[in-house]
């Protein structure tokens, strides 16, 4: 069994995932990092060249590979669980799925505070990446996150260290 971290962009999946993997003595893998490495370009560039469908196709291949692994901590891209086949691949192998829930205003603050986001990540709607986009996308995705998760952790007011401790206790 592996631990999969899901949630919206900025919820801390990669940051917490690295710490959790260290704590559990497991390997950390990030689906977005694997996609970027395989494609040789940023996610933003993949979206520009292939559109969202092209990116999601690449993502599905990576999720399928990650789902076959055990004893890993995996951070999934924010939209990875939107496809039923991705959710099925993870659940069929019995992995733990932790939803890192975070309030939209805090997500927006974190996203805006990360200089790499604008350069490497596309806007997800015509709303241009602002707080309205975060609210709208989160409203669409949250029911899917909740249907996919084994457990939920509200990370709005948690440090990465505290979130790591709570998740380790959940396991």
From TrEMBL:
Could you give the cofactor binding note from the entry?
Binds 1 Mg(2+) ion per subunit.
| Localization | Cytoplasm
The record's annotation in Pfam families points to: SKI
Q: Which Gene3D superfamilies match?
A: P-loop containing nucleotide triphosphate hydrolases (3.40.50.300)
Per UniProt, substrate binds at: 32, 56, 78, 141
Q: Which domain of life is it from?
A: Bacteria
Biological process (GO) annotations? amino acid biosynthetic process; aromatic amino acid family biosynthetic process; chorismate biosynthetic process
What EC class does the entry list?
transferase
Q: What Enzyme Commission number does this protein have?
A: 2.7.1.71
Q: Which reaction does it catalyse?
A: shikimate + ATP = 3-phosphoshikimate + ADP + H(+)
Listed cofactors? Mg(2+)
Name one molecular function that GO assigns to this entry: magnesium ion binding
Tell me which residues bind ATP.
10-15, 121
User: What does the entry list as the binding residues for Mg(2+)?
Assistant: 14
The UniProt entry's GO CC annotations, sorted and at most eight, read: cytosol
* Protein's pathway: Metabolic intermediate biosynthesis; chorismate biosynthesis; chorismate from D-erythrose 4-phosphate and phosphoenolpyruvate: step 5/7
Q: Which InterPro entries match?
A: P-loop_NTPase (IPR027417), Shikimate/glucono_kinase (IPR031322), Shikimate_kinase/TSH1 (IPR000623), Shikimate_kinase_CS (IPR023000)
Which terms are listed as keywords in the entry? Amino-acid biosynthesis, Aromatic amino acid biosynthesis, ATP-binding, Cytoplasm, Kinase, Magnesium, Metal-binding, Nucleotide-binding, Transferase
Outline the subunit composition.
Monomer.
Family designation: Belongs to the shikimate kinase family.
Q: Give the protein's biological function.
A: Catalyzes the specific phosphorylation of the 3-hydroxyl group of shikimic acid using ATP as a cosubstrate.
Question: What is the designated name of this protein?
Answer: Shikimate kinase
Q: Which organism is it from?
A: Humisphaera borealis
Q: What is the lineage of its organism?
A: Bacteria, Pseudomonadati, Planctomycetota, Phycisphaerae, Tepidisphaerales
